[in-house]
Fold:
Amino acid sequence: MSGPSTSPLRRPRTRLVGVLVAVAVLVGGASLLTPDVTAVDSRPVTEPVASTELVCSVTTATTTLTSTVTAGVAPLSSVKDGIATLADLSVTQTTEPLLIKQPGQTVSRVIEGRSGPAMLARATGSFAQGLGADQAIRSGQGATRGLAASPCARPVTDAWLVGGGSTVGRLTQVLLVNDDDRPAQVDLLVYGEAGPVPAPGASGIVLPAGSRKQVRLDTLAPNQNLVAVHAIARSGRIGLVGLDQEALGLVPMGMSLIPPSEAGTRLVIPGVPAPVHYAALELLSPDADTTVSLALLTADGYVTPAGISSINLEAGKVVAVNLNEALAGAPAGLVIRSDAEVVAGVEVGTGDTATLREKDATAPVPALVAPGVVVGLAGGALKHAVMLSAPGKAAKVSLALYAPGASAPVWRRTISVGSGSLARVTIPVTTPTASSTLVLTPLSGGPVYASRQVTEAGRRGPMIALAPILPQRASTLVPTVVSQPGSSVPGVSSH
Structure:
């Protein structure tokens, strides 16, 4: 006899039951592994900056023209240790990087005879919070005679240069630098007195990795008396500054470095020096007709300048406003307000019929929300001053001057700046070489804006340099990382 047999038709049902049990176990296990969703504060966290790079574009030199680039780490209380260098920005390194070993130390490289590659100041660790770098260019003779200075700055993707021109005898160059290891592409939009200037050669400028390019305005947009240039990095980031040289035949008319700035509806130019031969405010509203209101910050407080307190701008057209009468022989800061975004710059000139002419340029700056660091100050024939403007509430600022390698200042002052006023402070630099460091620290009160002035006296007339003072980037916002519930379980989502 044969025993009872199992029908083959019942086996699929058995397998199905097994699969359902397995799925139930998997889902149940996943539920146990998935944590409950709880509220998490995902706001960014402020952390000390861990690295900083400053691009130094001014390394132009001839037989009569010399550039000097200086970097250093200011002895701030937050600066303890790290690594900092000043090096050529080149894919083929030709010189050894200069090493900054301790806070208070500065290093310099002098470029003479022929132009060199751009330079890069870099710091990591807490040295990054105190890193500063500045660049200066000087010629004491010939048609290039002049003095100019500008801070080395972090690379950007969008910036304006307001000033310069492309008339006969004037050479304005946009110095573009790509500090990245990949190519960058840049568009230069040029504006003049009559509006936007067609400049086909200004679109799609390619900067190879680790390179610098000098772009002449007289080849892009010739015969322009007033110019504003909008630099837009379509890919990558760039460092930039404008180099403006002017001569009447062989007679020098001055040299300036035009600092990059941003567009805005409220701009502050912290200091226009005086007395000068002339001072002109250049304004542009790129996109819309608008009316600009102008106020002066003086030693006596706010001043509404007669005749130029309200300035009408047509979209896309650069306008120059004479400041001579408004300044009345005294230095002043400028506050510029508008409903539409505008850009601005100031050009000043010295000298008269008995002396040689000289000039320089300045631009709006951000407020000192953190200490400002200036490195590479030299004494001797050079005289230094700082201009501080407080357009809102009164403020107090600490100024501290450090000798090379020193951790304690050789000179310190606390400066009170009245509401709506400007304070000009002479800095007693005595070191013969470009090695002293100045630290400006906001202490209390409203926002403060700062710039500096360097003057070199000479029997043929003074030479002048103006430069913005920028706040240090001491901290950065770091986004909070929030884990996704269930992300450790394959196939299970928290949504």
About this structure: The first strand starts at residue 45 and ends at 48. The longest helix spans residues 11-33. The mean pLDDT is 89. The chain has one domain: 50-478.
